[in-house]
Sequence to fold (178 residues):
Amino acid sequence: MSAPGSSPPPSFMNEPTHTSAYSHMVKVSHLSSNMRLPNPEAASRASRPGAEDNVPNRFELFLLGDGEKKVTEETDTRIPSTSVFTFNKEDHTLGNMLRSRLLQSPNVLFSGYKVPHPLFSSFILRVQTDGTLTPRQALVQACKDLVTDLGLLSREFTKEWELRKMVGESVDGGINGI
Fold:
């Protein structure tokens, strides 16, 4: 193990050698009793910021900054009748609804979205049409259709909620609202 004429290795190094990736680590049980190791939890907190420090504040997820636009459009020059829309301060909820609604249109050939980074609340929507509508017109129509659909959903939900409250009051004498 050691070269002739050199000092012998410490006693804890005389253990059998391991071929694992962790064989270079020193076992704590061999340290002398007067040596103290720092609290690893406190050391890790002091040496690096916590995960909660990387998360943006909640209000930053939906409030636009000064001069920031909600939607920007960039025409794709590689593919005809294609635009790339960037939505700021929005997430998968709107991206998936728009993509789905756009694909229901017979004039839309392709619609897809991606979120560039999970910590930033924005997504990129690519829309390709057959040329009878511009991608912007298709997107505006999809937004109008979604507003109509969500209004219908809200009315139907409210109607069912009120009916269940009335049925619940008549069955149990009004003790439980549902």
Remarks:
- The first helix runs from residue 40 to 47.
